Amino acid sequence: MVSEGISVWNLETSFQRTPLRKLWGTLSKYSLPQVRDRVRFLLDLADIEVLESTEPYPFPIAQLDIPFNKRESSVCGVLLLSARKFLTKEQDFDNLVGKRMLFEMTPGHPIWNQKQGKEVPSDCWEIIEVKGIGSVAKTPTDRAVELLLGHTEAEFSQAFFKDEQVRKGEDAGILQKTVLDKQFIPALITNGIVVKDANGVYQPGPSYTQS
User: Fold this and answer.
1) Tens digits of per-residue pLDDT, 66-85?
2) Architecture of the domain made up of 137-211
3) How far apart are CA 35 and CA 24, in angstroms?
């Protein structure tokens, strides 16, 4: 007899968080499937080389499963922003298919949390390197400007001192001092790179050039 109530069959498999934290992999394809009520951003990686993992991972392939979202302050947004530095303005994510890339789960990104009603520091996937493609402009200063845009000064300060990229590079020490001395944002405003809106949020200024 078939029950009309709950069934023990045909159960859905929930999202499984990957143990991978840092790896090389060739992006064979990506897709945007609808999974229940959400769109997922799936990246299929081949010939992977695991550099960091929370548990043994002996497989030659991997799939990164990310909730699709066009907001910059989202897990998906962080990944896509990290890809920008390897693309010209005439290119887009499709140009990275077939490329061998270094992916790393990096901490401290201010991501909107619906339940808490605010941005909270979160781990996100980033593309750190692409074989055969040099980054267009990846100085700590460029990264700091990215962190500032779309945020208040308080939000920027919280994200800035947790971000790994702004702690690297030959000018990182000087940059951190200018931020601590409250000189960084005024200099950007003076040069027309950012402007502050009525809500205290910094937006691109007339001299801002997207890297």
Assistant:
1) 999 988 778 998 899 889 88
2) Orthogonal Bundle (1.10)
3) 27
Q: Could you write out the DSSP letters of every residue in 168-204?
A: -STTHHHHHHHHHTT-HHHHHHHTTSEEE-TTS-EEE
Secondary structure element (H or E) that encloses residue 79, with its range? helix 75-84
In CATH terms, the fold of domain 18-135 is OB fold (Dihydrolipoamide Acetyltransferase, E2P) (2.40.50)
Give the integer Cα–Cα distance in Å for 108 and 124: 8
User: 141 versus 101: which is more confidently predicted?
Assistant: 101
Say yes or no: do domains 18-135 and 137-211 share a fold: no
- Give the separation between CA 26 and CA 48, rounded to whole angstroms: 7
User: Is the Cβ–Cβ distance between 87 and 94 less than 8 Å?
Assistant: no
161: DSSP letter: T
Query: How would DSSP label each residue in 98-152?
Result: T-EEEEEEEEEEEEEETTTTEEEEEEEEEEEEETTB--S---HHHHHHHHHTTS-
Number of Cβ atoms within 10 Å of the Cβ of 55 = 7
CB-based contact 30:42 (threshold 8 Å): yes
Q: Is 58 helix (H, G, I), strand (E, B) or coil?
A: coil
pTM score of the predicted model: 0.60
Give the start-to-end residue ranges of the domains of the chain: 18-135, 137-211
pLDDT in tens, 194-207: 999 999 999 999 88
